[in-house]
């Protein structure tokens, strides 16, 4: 079995695109270390929205003598034993990394600007949360009884597990306004003190981090940014898709609306309620049907 490995240099419509719907790719054959052009009838871009690391730049950060990394580059807890670690960002990656590191580090801090609602992965009767609630009937009931009531009911249920205000996690936004964190162990780590919440970073010192509440933690060994990603398609001609402030216009979250021939699609560039792979499969099925229509 032979596997071909190419690096995509550019993707642009062929000269006769309006008639043929074809695409010209410039690729680098990594095995032969040479570039070549290939023409394809259709293109599926499946790079998703976790593309380029989003790294903030705080005052004094370049003078910090500890280690600075993005959660994208974090693999396991080896090497973090007995370290003092600050994790910045309270999304799923930040929560998972902070919980893991708090088991081996001497002290872990989780820095957040706004707090977050925290869901369990496992919900009622031991069923996965998305299996239980990410269903058509749930959204139909939401439309019937109204969003505000659903917000109150969902908040009441979450607060039965732990009081978000008491733990310093309660955000100003409602439960359905932003993506929540899904984490089973975060409250346990906060209660044990191995993980401590901090507000947003104000500035770095040579060996520590100052926060917006006026506190400073010194002797910090590692700062990990779990601050998300900036997505884009650097290999794609801007006349096809243009990303502005991390947003892109796509019909059905799949198709660039301005193409004369719909022979290019974006797969997986969507925030799913639940697993992304089934959504991507449905997107792919639709895309291949649209491609087929374009060549009938």
Number of distinct helices: 7
Give, in order, the helices and strands: EHEEEEEEHEEHHHEHEEEEEEEH
Structure summary, number of beta strands = 17
Strand content: 15-25%
Structure classification? alpha/beta
Instruction: Strand order, main sheet: write it out.
Output: 6-15-7-8-11
End-to-end distance, in Å? Answer: 33 Å
Shape category: globular
On the 0-100 scale, what is the average pLDDT?
90
Major sheet: size, sense and barrel closure?
5 strands, parallel
Low-confidence stretches: none
What Rg do the Cα atoms give?
Answer: 23 Å
Helix content: 10-25%
Describe the structure.
This protein has 296 residues and is α/β, with parallel strands linked by helices. It is 24% helix and 23% strand. It is built from seven helices and 17 strands. Strands 6-15-7-8-11 form a five-stranded parallel sheet. The mean pLDDT is 90. It catalyses: hypotaurine + NADH + O2 + H(+) = taurine + NAD(+) + H2O; hexan-3-one + NADPH + O2 + H(+) = propyl propanoate + NADP(+) + H2O; octan-3-one + NADPH + O2 + H(+) = pentyl propanoate + NADP(+) + H2O; NADPH + O2 + H(+) = H2O2 + NADP(+). Its main location: endoplasmic reticulum.
Short structural description:
The chain is α/β, with parallel strands linked by helices. It has helices at residues 17-20, 92-102, 129-133, 136-145, 147-161, 186-192, 276-294, and strands at residues 6-13, 23-29, 34-40, 43-45, 52-53, 67-70, 84-88, 107-111, 118-119, 181-182, 195-198, 201-204, 209-211, 216-217, 222-225, 229-230, 264-266.
